[in-house]
Specification:
The protein is α+β, with helices and mostly antiparallel strands. It has six helices and ten strands; from the N terminus they run H-H-H-H-H-H-E-E-E-E-E-E-E-E-E-E. This is RNA polymerase subunit sigma.
Length: 261
């Protein structure tokens, strides 16, 4: 029996021999313990090679004319399968990382060994992120809830006569006092002004503005009026702050007042 007959073991295991060669090899296999033993060792390799493409199969058919080609082909397929396995392990490791980040279970690291890459999960600890506890329930009408952050002490007032509603923030400054104003339920059209009253009974107009037809914070215009003003008066020198409406003759009337400051 020629050496080529012995090399048909791989081709026979892969099922690439034609009918005549298959019968010839089976006759040889019945009397050759070496080929029988080699064929037994090829069983796991056949499972590994079950997904190879037609080009590789064609190459295997040529191994009876080039003995070294079989070794090179099997080595190339093993390397390709090893790369596929490594890619699968990388995907598994990435999934472990994502899962660990979401649940706090841990993270994955990849270590290479002689038997191929391994995925090792290492535990970590995560702490929940929570905000500070609220000291009071949220008020949807409070401009400070989810709105612009304002500096200073907050004062709320609704005038029982005009219905105008305001929230004001007073902040001490080196130059005096900063006043942030939030107004709703303010009808228009009209001209308004913001007046500061001092302990020495003097007054100071710190801001003026025009209110459009739709007003501010009304059914016609739901947007509030927000403005900021400053006064040279120190915070402790202010007794009250008033929003006034001024008519065409210059006569002022109060719309809403913060008193007892």
């Amino acid at each position: 029996m020629s050496r080529a007959d012995h090399l048909d073991v791989a081709a026979y295991a892969l099922g690439v021999l034609d009918q005549a060669d298959t019968e010839r090899f089976e006759e040889h296999l019945a009397t050759c313990w070496a080929c029988a033993a080699e064929l037994e060792t090829m069983v796991p390799v056949v499972g590994l090679l079950s997904g190879i493409d037609g080009e590789t199969m064609s190459a295997l058919e040529q191994t009876h004319t080039d003995p070294a080609l079989l070794d090179r082909t099997l080595m190339a397929v093993r390397l390709d399968r090893r790369r596929d396995r490594f890619r699968q392990l990388l995907a598994t490791a990435a999934a472990v990382v994502v899962f660990g980040g979401l649940t706090g279970i841990g993270f994955a690291s990849i270590a290479g060994t002689d038997d191929g890459p391994q995925v090792v999960a290492e535990p970590t600890l995560t702490a929940p992120v929570t905000g500070p506890p609220s000291s009071k329930p949220s008020d949807p009408d409070d401009p400070g809830d989810g709105g612009t952050e304002h500096e200073g002490e907050q004062h709320n007032q609704v005038d029982p006569t005009t219905g105008v509603k305001t929230t004001m923030w007073l902040a001490k400054k080196e130059y005096g006092t900063q006043i942030d104003v939030y107004l709703t339920r303010l009808p228009g059209p009209r001209t308004c002004r913001l007046v500061v009253f001092r302990k020495n009974h003097t007054t100071e107009v710190v801001s003026t503005w025009a209110v459009p037809n739709g007003g501010y914070g009304t059914n016609l215009n739901q947007l509030p009026l927000e403005l900021s003003a400053s006064t040279s008066a120190g915070r402790d020198d202010i007794t009250k702050i008033q929003v006034q409406s001024v008519d065409v003759k210059g006569v002022a009337s109060p719309l809403v007042t913060l008193a007892g400051l």
